[in-house]
Amino acid sequence: MSGRTHSKRFRLRKGSVPVARAHVRSILTLWLLGELADDAESIVGELAANAVVHAKGIGEFFEVGLRRRDGVLVVEVSDSFQWRMPVRGDADPDDTCGRGLVLVEGLSDKWGVRPRESGKTVWAHLAINRGGVAC
Fold it and tell me: What mean pLDDT, rounded, does the chain reach?
């Protein structure tokens, strides 16, 4: 089962975020990685929402990628917004936003961002063998 990949594009609009989350769950269930679905879904939800908010008017789509390799599930969200790379910040208790990347950091084993020819990809790694049971 190592080496699986899947990607799908979604329209850059608010209503696409829950659709992307549900899609991630269905793919991980198909790959027999349902134990990672909650975390992967939450990560995709945060990153897709960021794409919708910050890349609005830049492109028409965001893309969700899933890759299984070497005991790691790689979750990626790509968009066309390239002028400012995301940076994890510390939100004040009264702030209504600004916690998305803190959540991504807390749920993932490692995360980061890389530029693309047109835009960026934010990625997160989830260890497949989290519970100590070999896959």
Answer: 85
Domain count within the chain: 1
Q: Is 90 helix (H, G, I), strand (E, B) or coil?
A: coil
Q: What is the model's pTM?
A: 0.83
- Interval 14-35: pLDDT, tens: 999 999 999 999 999 999 999 9
Q: How confident is the model at residue 96 (pLDDT cuts 50, 70, 90)?
A: very low
d(CA 59, CA 53): 12
* Structure token digits, residue 53: 């908010």
* Residue 66: inside a domain: yes
Give the range of the structural domain holding residue 104, as residue numbers without chain letter: 5-127
Residue type at 52 in one-letter notation? V
Instruction: Assess if residue 108 is contained within a domain.
Output: yes
Residue 132 covered by a domain: no
In CATH, what number is assigned to the domain containing residue 98? 3.30.565.10
Torsion, Cα 62 60 11 35, to 10 degrees, reads 0
Residue 114 CB contacts under 8 Å (≥ 6 apart), including other chains = 120, 121, 123
